[in-house]
Amino acid sequence: MRPRVLLVEDSTSLAILYKQYVKDEPYDIFHVETGREAIQFIERSKPQLIILDLKLPDMSGEDVLDWINQNDIPTSVIIATAHGSVDLAVNLIQKGAEDFLEKPINADRLKTSVALHLKRAKLEDLVENIQSKFDRHNYHGFIGSSLPMQAVYKTIDAVAPTSASVFIVGESGTGKEVCAEAVHRQSDRKDKPFIAINCGAIPRDLMESEIFGHVKGAFTGATTDRKGAATLAHGGTLFLDELCEMELEMQKKLLRFLQTGTYTPLGGTREMKVDVRIICATNRDPLTEVEEGRFREDLYYRVHVIPIDMPPLRERGSDIVTLAKHFLTTYAKQDKKKFSTIDSEAQHIIKHYEWPGNVRQLQNIIRNIVVLNNDEKVTVSHLPAQLTKKSKVTKTTTPAHVAQESANIAPITPPPGYTEEPSPSAVEPSITAAELPGTPSSAATSPYFNSDGTIRPMWQVEREAIQNAIAYCDGNVLNAAVMLELSPSTVYRKKQAWEADEINLEQS
Fold first, then answer.
1. DSSP per residue over 428-445, as a string?
2. Which of 9, 237, 280, 414 could form a disulfide with 15 if both were Cys (CB 3.0 to 4.6 A apart)?
3. What range defines the domain where residue 101 resides?
């Protein structure tokens, strides 16, 4: 589509002249004579560029410029006037004008100015489109811009236009149904029904009827024909949540439906054919379910075409605080409460909690805070005990005779060539007796304890170790990762999350 340029000029003769100047240029130019006509045209057509005369019959061009700014119209404005001055030009440019042309306008000057500003607008649109695809903060119900979520968005973009089956895996509360709806809304089926069935919440005797429907008299209580989810989703998307909860006998019937696109309602004799896209989800490991005989292998390979792994909330970094703030403002507005922000200390605790219940747990906690309080800022005192409690250190005293006996026992030397597999505990940093609180070597000298003898959180120790390693390697993250025996991607991801956390704390 060719760009649209709006010329707002009360002089018909000048308008004809300017249009003659640009008649061979690769854009369409439209002409109106008044400010009111200009506003109506802008509301209707959204031109990429406006050439605006300051002296108009019904209002000033400056008023039109103010209206454009107030309504956030995405367009560039070039001011044209015969009564120009430096002060006026500066004032209008401060208000958002892109350029200032003094009448009479030279043909080359007009063509050059219009061409430059249209090219700039095109580049800005291109950058915005790229950012919208690769640095998205919101996406079809999702909130968050972390790298794991950007990967989810890109996968949805790729799979949505196709007819391939999607299998969503993730912990409870990670947003699997939101993901399924996003696939549907991004697809060509977005104007058709989206039907969701929770296989774990439907009794086994009713599952077949819920999906395929039934005819009158199929069972006791079936007084009328009833359409199932497969029929209701015709042309659209059928989402089967918690698929691994489905009984094996029903899995067999579902497999046939997926292979043929046909089914027979419960108690019926006539086969029905529908066009649906299947999206499945589970919070279990489907391969484990297959190995243990609870999930059909042939059904697994039928539905597991495009997997989407929903990241748990604890792996989403700064998204945790972003979501918390979103829920806070939403519920505060609903309940007419004063809450507007979260202080830095509370943000830190929220971000470093494990969140076993994921987004659903975070949402409920924020809801609880808003309902029970009415302050302007969420502080640590508002947070529930499960977020703020610290693990207690159990202090034990070794009897002197036991310690002496232990000291006299010679270490056992393994035979040559023997290699012992490290135990899980060996992977963690070891704490010697000298490092325990109350021993001659005080806790103050240990990286694992605070000055008061309490254990430091693991995330603090880990962060300090990684940062020290990066500093030791003169900022080379790859070398630091090798020395720490960690994956470089893990070190990069953690470093990025810490930097984002610091930025958020500074801004809050």
1. SPP--GGGSTTSSS-GGG
2. 9
3. 4-131
